[in-house]
Amino acid sequence: MDTIESTISKSGSASYLVPLQQFIFKFLVKSLIGADPSSSKEISESGYIMLDRWLALQILPTVHIGKEVIGRGEAEFGLNQKECIHNLLFILGFNAFGGFSVFLPSLVSALVSDKTGLQEKIRKEVREKGGSTLSFDSVKEMPLVLSVVYETLRLNPPVPLQYGRARKNFQLSSHDSVFDIKKGELLCGFQTLVMRDPKIFEEPESFKADRFMNEKGSELLSYLYWSNGPQTGSPTASNKQCAAKDYVVLTAALFVAYAFRRYDSITGDSSSITAVEKAK
């Protein structure tokens, strides 16, 4: 946000795409791997660019990995050092950094394009709830912030397509049809379409910030598929559910809560922030 404020003061607006990538890279390296990117000038300045290139070309980046997390991989999961590092780089680079690079801009766009007074409501909630220090636990006390995150994931799932091959013959049911699936057939799920099902979601094409609040909203979480399963599900080795499903939601909620404890308002469009008003 310091970078964005500085750019706005010089140019009148600031693209938030690169600052978001720089931020999420440093945040993920610290929180997932336990390493500080600032210990290497090259990684600190260009680590996010390395991952962008890797995402595009599947070239393995070189990043310092904290020894503690490697030790856990060896002791708790029976992996050797090479396997630990490869898994960590894939999680950091593809699952986490890649996913957040798609998701967070959608979240910012929804917030800065607000014409309904949403920012005022979020500002009130994040300053009244969660205590003095923000954390993964404190944002769980912010139902509107969490609902905004869920609604963004519903309309813009970071990974819209999922594929799987049938392990046995079975019948796949929709609201009004039944399909015979044969063992070995390749299936594709398009979440962007599924998450706009009018029989489940009222006004499915509209962004409703409070959609997932209260008891009725909590029930809708059983139908929220932004990962490889419902939001109410848990990742296992067999279901291909996003291993960091809850981490994604809470990280995004933490980001929103921090932004509106820092600012009274944020103005912009789908790619840029044009003005910020510091909290009074």
From TrEMBL:
InterPro entries noted in UniProt = Cyt_P450, Cyt_P450_E_grp-IV, Cyt_P450_sf
Record keyword Transit peptide present: no
Keywords, A to Z, come to:
Heme, Iron, Membrane, Metal-binding, Transmembrane, Transmembrane helix
For this protein, the parts annotated as crossing the membrane are: 88-112
Q: Supply one GO BP term.
A: sterol metabolic process
Molecular functions per Gene Ontology: heme binding; iron ion binding; monooxygenase activity; oxidoreductase activity, acting on paired donors, with incorporation or reduction of molecular oxygen
Q: Which domain of life is it from?
A: Eukaryota
Q: Where does heme bind?
A: 242
Q: Which SUPFAM superfamilies match?
A: Cytochrome P450 (SSF48264)
Q: Which cofactors, if any, are listed as required?
A: heme
Q: Which family does it belong to?
A: Belongs to the cytochrome P450 family.
Q: What is this protein called?
A: Cytochrome P450
Lineage of source species: Eukaryota, Viridiplantae, Streptophyta, Embryophyta, Tracheophyta
